[in-house]
Each structure stands twice: as structure tokens, then as C-alpha cells.
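so i finally got all the pieces together for this one. its two components total, 630 residues if u count the protein bits. some of the lines might not be protein, just check the labels. i wanna see the whole assembly predicted at once instead of chain by chain like last time, that was a mess tbh
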Amino acid sequence: MKHRTLAALSQSGGVLVVAIAVTALAARVAGQAPSSAKPLPAAPAKAAPAAPAAKKWTLPRTPDGQPDLQGYWTNSTYVPLERPDKVTKATYTPEEFAAVIKEAASREAEQTEPGTVADVHYDFTQFGLDKSQSAFVKNDLRTSLIVDPPNGKMPPVTPEGQKRAADRAAERRRMGATTDAVQNMPIGTRCLIMAGSGPPMMNAGYNNNYEIVQGPGYVMILVEMIHDVRIIPIDNRAAALPENMRQWMGDSRGHWEGDTLVIETTNLNGKNPFRGSSENMRVTERIARVDADTLSYKFTITDPATWTAPWTAEAPMTKSVGPIFEHACHEGNYGVTNTLAGARLEDRKAAEGAAKKTSN
Amino acid sequence: MRTRFCTATLLAAAAFGVAWGVMPVAGQTAAYRAPRTADGKPNVNGIWQALNEANWDIEGHSAGPGRVVALGAEDAVVPGLGIVEGGPLPYLPAALAKKKANFDKRLTLDPEIKCYLPGVPRAMYIPQPFQIVQSTKTIMMAFQYAGAVRTIYMDEHKEAPADSWMGWSNGHWEGETLVIDSTGFNDLSWFDRAGNFHSDTLHVVERITPADPDHLTWEATIEDKAVYSRPWKMSMTLYRRKEKGARLLEFRCVEFVEDLIYGHLRKVQK
């Protein structure tokens, strides 16, 4: 497993945690996700045709008649959000995609050389945390999660969005090094929130696990990291948040359109921007049970302060293995303490070294 | 003849009905039968909250000064009759000394101050609401405080695969009562702000019974041979949050304690 620095791990809007909480090590068995009989649609607009030999699958329902979305799911995938620059088509052939996975998996499994600067003490591969060592979505051959715009990339950023990005970058520079204070570190490192929560819910580097439990009038989504619970009230049974009340995961409200759960989220606090979004981003998610092993998950981002048009991505989920382990991130966050303490030690050594020079 | 028989039958039926609680009898209250979920179980879905002072101190206690002078009356200890049944907590002698040390150093040691997960049963009476989402195989309890979560496994009962702050909970129904058996705790959470504590051999058995449409009776038996000389019980009422549109909000307190925990390691002090 290649050495991953904090910088390498940070992605805009989604961060991996280097400090692994003691209680959060999920002993995932290296294995296969049970494969669906039906391949996911190659062209997103078409419905998946039933595989001829498979038994007809009927949508299960909860005892009170909701479509049953319950179970353990993962959105772990090798499909990137945006289509790579060199790629012009919307889907790979199975052979091409197999090569993509193989290449990525072998990069994950590379071991660092002991005694070198790049060597890591905690190797993801040894702990079964490589993406390829757990269930991941296997039958999605697209070259991007984004389906609209059709070029597989986010729409252009507005002038206001560009200015906001520049302001944020300037503010980060003004704050100083990440090791100067905990508030300078990525929010995932600080155990505040991770990419899996969103919304929209995106896969991160590992432990991309979800558990859905449904009760009367509520759909509850447990995100493994950082044990975030999204409680989606159906049909306005929860009071709407006023304009001035903002939350990390916003205010989510759901309703059923046929057998699809539609979730609208507003009132984000803007502290966890998604690809540069503003606090007025609106996220519309659509979740449906496609078959025994698949949830379709589609999200539309509407943020006129940031993008010239709304944009949509599909990031399906496949069946995963439970249980969800407790991710007590903050409670076990030795990484922040040790990183800051180490930096202060280096500061003192540098100061002592400078003092020696001047006194000589 | 027929009339007398019918009358006698009616009288017998009435007596029978009284004995089974259909009509309240002096000195007896009828057992409440909660509405059922679609899969036939007592319905405990909803937003609930304890309305007592157990989070200050699970034992009966008077009012007292707080930990921080500048916070004055807002940090002062609120008095409470306590939720522990039957006398002082049966600490082993060494454990009682540790409890006293915990109390003396509570400002630095209480995990709640650092926004750590509350553990069980403290999560049940920390003064913020929690929501129960009840399904057949799983009952989830989501807590507003620190976004804590308890998964109650109703179907396959397994042993805890690892220790955790919130423990591993296996649940089953006994008539009207949800019985939750929890183990797999680490030793890092406290029972309250007064320093009452447990070890990693903590074993909690809760019994949750709807008392009426808006109240749950909650009882817990605590067993921890490393700390207490015998098992002991606590009990309290959980109240339904009834305001229109009641919901959990975010109390993501990690952000609020960063300067407390890491402030001394800043390059430039504030």
C-alpha cells in the first residue's frame, strides 16, 4: 500500500482519515459482493433488462407497505465522479473496466519499502482496508458517476463560485500550516464529518458501509463513518428548519414517488462544501431498490451560486456485509494530538538550533 | 331459568373482566397494551427524552456548586431524587476510592465534557432527545447528543465482535416489554457527571415497557463484578416529545471542544 500523506488523502469535499480509531477497525473479509443477475444499465436512461434465466424478482415491502430498502449497503466504486480527460465514451467494455480495476487494485496492494521515507507503519492492505478487499459495485461500467451534463463533468463554475473558491484558498493560506492548529486540518482528520455522510453520500477510501432501517414514517440511514445517522422524515412530519438554522448534514425531508424515495436537503451550514458548493446548495436524492443486491442512488446538485446549471450523478450501492462497527473517531483521535505535538517538538528543536547558532 | 343463567354468566364475565384488568379495580391498574407495529410488536417508535437529573448524579443528591466559578448558577448541580433503586451504589472498596477520585477530578475526567460518546445507560438520560426507529430485525436508537447511536439486534444474537463505547445490544420481546441485553463495553464512559463508572466487564439488561401512549417505563439492571459487589437496578420514565414536528437536531459537539482538547498544542496560542 503506497504511503498516503494527509495531503494525498485530502480530496476537495472528501477526506480520508489517517488516524485509525482503535474501535473502528472493521475486519472485512476479502471477498466478493454477491453479483446481481442483471448488469447495471450501460446507458443510464434505460431500465435494466431482466436476465433471461433469473427468477423474477419482486420488490419486497416493509410490514407497513414501504418499499424495503433495508440492509447493509456499500457505494464503494472504481467509477470516478467525473469522466477522466482522456476518455470520451460513457461506458467501458467489460474488458477495459476489468483492466481499470486490476490496475487500481495492484496500486492499492503495493507495499512500501521498509526504511524509506515512503514507508508506512499502518498499511491499509494489512488491515483489509483496500477498496478491492471489500465489496464494491462491480457491474457499473460507466466512465463517470455524473450522468448530466452528458460529457460526464460538472458544469462550469459561476464567477461567484470561482471567487468563493479563491477566497477559501486564501483563507487556508492565511491560517498557516495544517500542523499549526487542529482547525487547519481537513474536517475528516478532525473527525467532524466524512464523505460518506454528505449529502450527497459519496464513497471515500474505505469502510463505505451503510445500514438502512425503516420504521413507520421514517427511513434511517446509518453511515459507518462517523457513525452519522440520517433520519429522513416522510411527508413533512418533522418541522422544517427556518432559514437561520443550518446543519452539517442540512435538513432532509423525504417522500415516496411510486417506489422511489425522494429526499430533498437544504439548510446546509457550508462547512463541508461538496466540490466547492455554497451553503445554499440543494441536494435531491432518489433511492430505489433495483433488485435483491442493488440500490439505485441518484443525486442532483442545484446551486446557482456555484454552477451554471444543476448536475446529476448516479452512484449505485451494492449489498455489503454487516455489522456496522462503531466508528468512535473523535474518541480515538490520537493522530491529531500526535501530529500537533510532533510539530511543536520540531518547532522547539528548530528554535534551540537557531539559539545555539546565534550564541556561538 | 334461561334468564338466571344468562345473568349469572354476565356476572361471571364481569368478574373475569375485572380480574384481567378490563375494568380498573381499586388498588390495581390495568396493564397497558400499546398499539402494534405492522409486524405485530409493541410500537416504541418515536422521539423520547428522560426528564430527571440522573445525568448530574444517578444517586439521590442535593443541589451543589458547579465546577467553573465563572458559570455561576448555570453550572450548579441540579438536585434529584436519583434513579438508583435501593440505597447507595454497592461499590467494592477500591472502586469507591476511584469514584471519589473521579468526582474530585471531574472537570478534566468527565467524558461528556470532551464530547465523547456517552455509553449506556447514560445515553438514555442525557438531557437531549433520542429517536427510536423500529424495524423487525433491528431497532435503532439515534441520540441527539454527539450523534450517538445504538443498534439493537432483534434477529440474530451474536457476541460483541469488539469493545465499543455504546456496547453491543441484543434485544427480544417479552410480551409488552423490550428486553435489551448489552455487553462489549469499553471502560471509558461514565454513568453521570458525578464520576460513577464501570469497567469493561459491564453487563446491562434493560426492560422498556410502554406505560401509556406517551410514556415508556425504563428499567436497567447493572452488573459489573470488577466495580460492584452485586448487581443493582435503576428505573425511570421516558417521555414522548409531543410538540408538532418534533425532531432531532444536530449536536455535533466535537467542533466545540477542539480548543479544550488541542488548544495547548497550537503553534500560536490564542
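The beta strands of chain B are 46-50, 130-134, 138-143, 149-153, 168-174, 177-183, 203-212, 215-223, 232-240.
Chain B touches chain A through 50 residues (CB under 8 Å).
anyway lmk what u think
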